[in-house]
Amino acid sequence: MVEHEDRLSRVFSALADPTRRDMVARLAAGDATVSELAAPYDVSLQAVSKHIQVLEEAGLVSRSRDAQRRPVHLDAEVFDLMTKWIERYRQQAEERYQRLDALLDRMQGREQDLTDRRNEGAAG
Amino acid sequence: MVEHEDRLSRVFSALADPTRRDMVARLAAGDATVSELAAPYDVSLQAVSKHIQVLEEAGLVSRSRDAQRRPVHLDAEVFDLMTKWIERYRQQAEERYQRLDALLDRMQGREQDLTDRRNEGAAG
DNA sequence: ACCTTGTTCAACCAAAAGGTTGACAAAGCC
DNA sequence: GGCTTTGTCAACCTTTTGGTTGAACAAGGT
């Protein structure tokens, strides 16, 4: 839709592809050239080259030069961006859940069903 | 490409969209109905309905029923899946980086350039 | 200079994503 | 019963994505 979306979108989008996730997994064990990366997959070298481009645009990898080879290196810092985003909302959701639990404790004597949990969540 | 891809692909793919990420952020503060969720965005209710479906298929949200309303609820557990994946490879990459550092320490007297760092990473 | 190896660029294609509008279902309100 | 609210289904359109092939570029090796 938008030509160049925000960082987080590109990172999540890059990792949404299983082939690219697998490549990241392998790069975590050490740098690799394009053909080394391509070896296990049943697709053209060009397709792999494109995948690496996507990872690079997401800031997940960087490429150097070694003669004709273009070694691909995993840049782990971007992971922090994701982790922060995830943790933020997970914590928020968990805190909310705990507040709900506490509320349920306080009114445990009353005959209320789960609908109350949900309603409190939406309103509070 | 594949009709129903693995869980992780669907989760990352779902969060690759900024609108959906925003919806998740808002749901972390409490459940909401479809129209409540749709309100801030300049798109049709149908488009929002589709977004919610994507989040649901990714296991990020679930829907209950309250009269005509379909309250959307954030399921935080799926976040663990992502976090685990991310942490695994980040740690691996960091450990590798530290081993490289240690290696560099041991051979600090020699006149070696960064190429050695890269080569060790690819071969080891 | 020429060949080989490693990688990218360009054009093209099919499928998926994200949006639209129109019709319809489901449940409360008058 | 009929209207209104809330949401989904279906058909359609456009852009993006992930793949293809063929040509080209880059940098040693001989």
From TrEMBL, chains A, B:
Residues 1-93 form the HTH arsR-type domain. PROSITE patterns: HTH_ARSR_2. Keywords: Coiled coil. Residues 86-117 form a coiled coil. GO terms for molecular function: DNA-binding transcription factor activity. Pfam families: HTH_20. The keyword Coiled coil applies. Gene3D superfamilies: Winged helix-like DNA-binding domain superfamily/Winged helix DNA-binding domain. InterPro entries: ArsR-like_HTH, HTH_ArsR_DNA-bd_dom, WH-like_DNA-bd_sf, WH_DNA-bd_sf. CDD domains: HTH_ARSR. The keyword DNA-binding does not apply. SUPFAM superfamilies: Winged helix' DNA-binding domain. This is ArsR family transcriptional regulator. It comes from Nocardioides silvaticus. The lineage of its organism: Bacteria, Bacillati, Actinomycetota, Actinomycetes, Propionibacteriales.
